[in-house]
Amino acid sequence: MAIQAPATRPANPRFSSGPCAKIPTFSLDLLSDAPLGRSHRAAVGKAKLLAAIETTRDILGIPADYKIGIVPGSDTGAVEMAMWSLLGARKATMVAWESFGAGWVTDVVKQLKIDADVMTAEYGDIVDFDKVDFNTDVVFTWNGTTSGARVPNGDKIPAARDGLTICDATSAAFAMDLPWDKLDVTTFSWQKVLGGEAAHGIIVLSPRAVERLESYTPAWPMPKIFRMTKGGKLIDGIFKGETINTPSMLAVEDYLVALEWAKSVGGLEGLIARATANAKVIWDFCDAKPWIANLANDPATASNTSVCLKFTDDRIQDGAAFAKAVAKRLEVEGVALDIGAYRDAPAGLRIWCGGTVETADVAALMPWLEYAFEAEIAAQ
Ligand SMILES: Cc1ncc(COP(=O)(O)O)c(C=O)c1O
Q: Which reaction(s) are listed as its catalytic activity (predicted)?
């Protein structure tokens, strides 16, 4: 019997985990107020950068005494800047359960050569946070973008701790509740949950992180691009929109537009609800189908942004080739772009569910997933 293609297609097939789908209302015309060809240090540029910082604070509920900076190098730049500037004052604990977290482990252990305990878990699990010593500096990734497993909440992080927590929250910010009192450094990039443009990162510093910056000088040289202090004092301007180097004012405008859209859907609460509704469509689909499962083993840790899936049907002969063929078929059909699992992750699919994705599109994709699965089983 020929396998029938579903009648309905997602209106937007963009399910990439970064850069992520742009806001549903996006049009280049929305960027017409960008002060292009002007200095970012002119009043108009500085006002835009400050607005980006303060609107981020409002939407994410970041406390007034936390510093927010726009930094070069996207999320990677923000994480590296934090690690290079803050680590080494005390022992560190490096926590990882997928490839981005593993990358931070490598940098700290092999490049910075910090005295660190390394705690890892396999793709699909997270580490046991009860065993993490928060009197050390702890570096971890809130949502493992490449495994779809996240920290469920901040309950395991003590409010009173001697170490700093440095959290890569790039696929979590604007989709998950981040407990600011438990996080000393939080980073994310614009290209993720709000579907912004790549290039810039955000770094959020708690008062304790600032205190460390002002009281500790690492033994290694600090590239200008990472420098947050001068003469032992925080360079306050960075956190008011006086960026270290030149930002893209087009990307800034795009981020401002995305923030306004975020407000229009109910701010953080609305964004979390949208992401969770999207992910639930896939979770329910997995519950109903015996041949596919969430890569996250514990539903409490299942991501509502980067939903990672594995095929579990024992008719599949070559898991990696099968998953690639399914992703390819969906791309060729024009119903899902960029949903193959990350290159270092177990074979499978990864479907982005952040708030810029419409639930109707995720729902429309599910029958296509079944169609592609059946077609590839038949084609083996
Ligand atoms: C958890 C995590 N960290 C870091 C990065 C790198 O982000 P960027 O390319 O914005 O620097 C990504 C990108 O997907 C990510 O998911």
A: O-phospho-L-serine + 2-oxoglutarate = 3-phosphooxypyruvate + L-glutamate
